[in-house]
Design brief:
alpha+beta
Length: about 220
Amino acid sequence: MNKAQLVEAIQDRLGGRQQASEAVDVVLDAIVRSVVAGERVSVTGFGSFEKVDRPARYARNPQTGERVRVRKTSVPRFRAGAGFKELVSGAKKLPKNDVAVKKAPKGSLMGGTSAKKAAAKRAGAKKTAAKRGAAKKAAAVRTTAKRMPAKKTAAKKAATKKAAAKKTTAKKAAAKKTTAKKSSAKKATAKKAPARKAPGRRTAARKTAAKRATARKR
């Protein structure tokens, strides 16, 4: 189908051949101008038109086989939409009493002003979300940094308490050992000291006889 046949196919719906021709020209002109400006034109259910930049490269001349340098250039590209692909592949059937491609919502043409505003809003929303995420991460890092010194201080206090308890236990053990040594020394000294012998009966009898003799002489 060429352009003339396309105009004939839609002239009955647009009220005549002239109106159909103008409609086709206006639509194609808008698409071409938008793609040349570097904008992407997307029609829901049909496809999208966009400009693609190709870097400089080397190619082969198909006739001579000579290697030729190709300059950097830009080419238009069309990508069929999901609905268009499904109709062509046979996954969906063409509607009999309705258009094959449903009407696109407002702003579906990416070259329009409303579409630009929508894209700007989306970009702003993404930036805001990124800033909020970064702020949350920074706050979490700060909170973690604050908690770390507190944990270290608690660990130091616990270690100090354990060390003090160990010192106290060691002192008590040393005191017990000293007391045990003193008591054992006292016992040993008591065993070594000789026991005093009680005066015998003979010595007492002699003293009594001496006292009686002295009394008689008087």
